[in-house]
UniProtKB/TrEMBL annotation:
Domain Hemerythrin-like as annotated: residue spans: 4-123
Highest taxon above the source species: Bacteria
InterPro entries, per the entry: Hemerythrin-like
PANTHER family attached to this UniProt entry: HHE DOMAIN PROTEIN (AFU_ORTHOLOGUE AFUA_4G00730) (PTHR35585:SF1)
Name of the protein: Hemerythrin-like domain-containing protein
Region of interest called Disordered, as start-end residue ranges on this chain: 145-194
């Protein structure tokens, strides 16, 4: 599958979750609403998605485009802000002080980030690379996602080297913890592919 089709199906799945979370209850009801599970699904999906973009997609954008560094730096800054909010959600409990505000901030920021990638970055990237390159990158993304961390790790540096080494170590710990707690079972990480 080509890289942009692969990333788009991740985005579709995240946008679907954001839609559900848009009308999420706040206060006391939030705790009883199953919001926890939806947010955990979102944390897993987003953590894996941004990690593989940082390992593979942004380095490819930097290499392919003259303005690649600028585009990648802007997107990675958005991703870092998003990870901090996700970490707040991961540490917090629905209904708790500040939780609803962090969730609302994440929903808005994530939509803007997806819009930036799809409308600003992708058209330029697609112009600059061949169909074969897109296909090859898609294969690498797909493979990397299986080993990607399931938690946000906002303090792990976002460069490709750090993501490959520190990110990989964090990912192993995440997967062990997921297996031990049953989190992986309750929250299957992958959306259906087209
Ligand atoms: Fe991203
Ligand atoms: Fe993305």
């Amino acid at each position: 599958m080509d890289a942009l089709t692969f990333l788009r199906s991740d985005h579709q799945s995240v946008l679907g979750m954001l839609e559900v979370l848009d009308g999420a209850p706040t206060g006391d009801g939030a705790h009883r609403s199953g919001l926890d599970t939806t947010v955990t699904n979102l944390v897993i999906a987003e953590s894996q998605h941004e990690a593989i973009e940082e390992q593979l997609f942004w380095p490819a954008v930097r290499a392919a485009l003259d303005e690649g560094d600028e585009l990648a730096d802007h997107a990675i800054a958005q991703e870092q802000d998003g990870k901090k909010l996700l970490q707040q959600l991961e540490n917090g409990t629905p209904g708790e002080n500040g939780y609803a505000a962090a969730l609302a901030a994440f929903v808005g920021a994530a939509r803007e980030h997806i819009r930036y990638e799809q409308e600003v970055v992708w058209p330029r990237f697609k112009e600059a690379v061949s169909a074969e390159e897109l296909e090859k990158l898609g294969g690498l993304l797909e493979k990397a996602k299986k080993a990607a961390p399931t938690r946000p790790h906002p303090h792990t540096p976002s460069g490709p080297g750090a993501q490959m080494t520190l990110g990989a170590a964090a990912s192993i710990v995440d997967h062990v913890r997921d297996a031990a707690t049953g989190r992986a079972h309750d929250n299957p990480p992958d959306p259906p592919r087209p």
